Amino acid sequence: PSALCQMAIECRMWRIFAIPLVLFHLIQVATSDCDYSKCVDLHVDFYHQPIVDAELVQCCANLKDLCDKTRCPLKPVACKEEFHEVAVKKGVCCDEYMCAPPKDRCIVRINGRAVLKNLGDTWDSDDPCTKHICDYGMDGKAQEKTYKEYCYHTCNNEYQLKLIPGQCCGQCVQTRCKFNDTLYSVGETWKSEDRCVLYECTKKDDTVAVATYSKQCPKLPTCNKRDIYIKDCCQYCNPRHSMRHSNNKSLDTDDEDYNSYEKHPCKRPCTEGSQPMVCRYKFIIEWYETLSKACFNCPFNATDCFRPHCITGDGSRRSVLVVNRKMPGPAIDVCQGDTIVVDVENNLLGETTTIHWNGLHQRRTPYMDGVPLISQCPISQEQTFRYTFYADNAGTHFWHSHTGVQRGDGALGPLIVRCPPSEDVHYKLYDYDKAEHLMILQDWTTLTGISMFNAHHHSSGDNKPKNILINGRGRFLNAPVTKMVVEDDGEMDLAASSSMVDPTSIPMTTTTDSATETTTYTTEATSRTTTESIPETTQRATTDATTTTESQTVSSGIYVDPKDDFGFMHDNNDPTMKTLPHAQERHTYVRNKRETPVDVYTTYLNESQHIPFQVYYVVHDKKFRFRLINAEFLNCPMEMSIDNHTLLVIASDGSEIEPIEIDTLVSYAGERFDFIVHANQKPGNYWIRVKGLMDCDQRFTSAHQVAILRYFGADEKDPKDPPKYDHVRGGRQLNALNRGMEDRTTISIAEMTNAYRDPDNGVLQKEPDFKFYVYYDFYAKNNTNFHVGGLYGFNEVLLNSQRRYTPQLNHISMKLPTFPLMPARHMIDDNQFCNSSTLANRGINCRTEFCECSHVLQVPLNAIVELVLIDEGFTFDANHPFHLHGSSFHVIGMERLAGNVSAEIVQELDRSGKLYRRLKGAPLKDTVTIPDGGYTIIRFRADNPGYWLFHCHIEFHAEIGMSLVFKIGEHDEMLPVPVNFPTCSDYTPEISDSTRSSSIHQTTASILLLIISIFLLRCFP
């Protein structure tokens, strides 16, 4: 056999011969008498270990393998698998090697890496509640086992269970303050029972504690004991105080009929999982007056300026149209998901009204949008309309009248919808979000809005705001200097000067002696008044005896009976309040021993300089969320900045954006911005500056206003440098006037980034379903509302200042229907509607004719709509912000091309692909501006069926037709009309034959009666 094997091997045919050889050997062994249990295991791999030689020996040992050991596999140095060991299995010829895990240890993977654990070792994983151990398994081998830990911890009320890295059950962390068994959230403040101490729940370095601020009472002047009274811990002097206030209600209690809702139960911390509330409000809208009798001695006693129902404005005495005798009106402050119910009672004199909830899209309640003759009938005098809607989308919104120019007269207020911290993407960026850090901006005039509107459109009156208010008050900072001379006959000669004067330089004491003894103009002041706490400029003013006035008169001056010598109140309940040096000023015009009010503009200026500035308090090194609302009604964009501080903008129009740090912020009518102020400067007082642009700029009125950012602990005084319109704040600016993405020195709205990147990729698809080009300008046309051809047509009036250019969208002025489109849609005839296409089909050229009709664009439900908004800018260098009802939109493009540009050029640029569109991360807005001589592109999904207004947010422009309506979906896709919803329409019945016949019979009877009467008179004289 060995020879055969050798031959097979040499011939490389060993397999053919080796297999029969082994079979032969096995047969031989099987027939032998050997004890096979004693045989050594024969390990021969004929396929990998070729036999070189073999010979039979006695019994089981009679086969001796002769192997070539050099052909056996080598023992591996190491195993490829981590921590595996080489195991050996002995063979007859060659040993077999294999890799095996260690017998008494576990190989586990931790953080993606293999780790060797000994028996009994334990370790943690990403889940702190899961423990791991190396232990024997059922097969007796080491293996990894896991055990789950369960927690049953509870925390006391002021504590909250917080997960701690590395711990399973976490620990109870204090998140609220407990004081006298009452819980307070971080940032919440309260006063002691005697109101001498202010407490605040604060958080510093993860420690929550109650901070204490002791009230600093003003120095008590010389005063009779019977005239001293105590209020809010401090003593004040006010003669006859007890008589004046004996029958008054507490000033801290909301009046039942004129509620401020500062303590509304819905104004609460918003927490995840909390039950939504039904939040009820009553709004009484009426005409009222600034500096009314509710103001007592305001503004000379600053404390009185904060009395309920006292509206200061800028010190000008004028009528205002307000809600609950507040300006701004009562705040609605609720949590997302709440139901808001507002009963609006119209107490106006012969006027209608509605309220729009700017920023809420009314997806479930389209009849509550508050647009007259679109979503509802106007609310008539003495009627109450109940608005019921849902706070679906969180953010900074506001409510305002949507009728006429009522918003410009003060009918507006904040609407804040808060979300739980877990849903606020920017919650960790700030420490406080307090209701008092709200900033509402208004442009302001000395005339009512309707008076200004009529004077501007029917005569030569201007449309330029004279001033700006912050939270309903401010000073007139740009007073024209005038001279007043009191003649012998008592007539006042006002000689106006065109120069401007700093209000801090206006004299506070005025005395003029005429040539006669019976005609005097006097100002009395209490000599005991101290000026220690008054700014330096004001102290200087007290010694100046120069008289200054202005030519414009006001409705009434201050008139106080000299016999009614009350003395002045010095109440510092509000941190912004202080008594100014002339709390006892009297303006009395005496002639022939009769006293009449001095009705001159100097009263306005004198009062205006004492109006308290709005003050915002901050704590050093803390971050505060501010909410800004631009409620202007004319063309007065506003630039806002805070001295020595930057603004971190985090949201606009209720939609979050990726934070942008800027130095100045420009806002337009209807826009809202949320920004964070880090109080990281030296504690003190800093100006918050608001500068008017466009019709408020240095070419016209230089309107501007200031408020104060005051650190806790700082002196209660104004910043040193007087505010000036020409103050320049450099740095980065957001939303600059008439600039777009082409300007590299500023940041446009289109360059902001949505905090959620692409929340709706369908809207930002490459091509929309519908595209509309909406262009506008001021056009020289015979608008029949203001120019009647043949009488006083556009080119027939005498003065250029009397020519009124008409702002139109696509050369069409919007004319509201005679009935509300939403609730009375069954009355609609589509022929009532118009747009560029329908008018062109009828052969009407609106470029040359004045076109006025119900301008409606119709799109199917759920369509993607794109608007290319074009400001041609040929007539004026102007600016128009546009607001869309019922939806937000993505701003995907914005650019100023030139000083002016035609719609045809923009369309040609678009066809050639030269209008840039940003289709990723485009921000969401509901109000946006368009650069003059440029364009803005917006997109939205038409998923809210109904009729929705799209309009310029400048009241004068919207009221004369600068708007259109989107009809979204078909009528059967719109929500049903609420039961008993009010309707209205024209009433013009036809005169029937029976009516004419009855009229003839009545006439005949009257003639017969007259004949009989004459006959009887002649017969019986």
UniProtKB/TrEMBL annotation:
Domain Plastocyanin-like: 314-419, 609-713, 834-970
UniProt biased composition (Low complexity): 509-553
Organism domain of life: Eukaryota
Any one Pfam family match given in the protein's UniProt record, by short name: Cu-oxidase_3
One GO BP: iron ion transport
Signal peptide: 1-32
Family stated for the protein in its record: Belongs to the multicopper oxidase family.
Name of the protein described by the UniProt record: Putative multicopper oxidase
Taxonomic source organism: Nyssomyia neivai
Organism placement in taxonomy: Eukaryota, Metazoa, Ecdysozoa, Arthropoda, Hexapoda
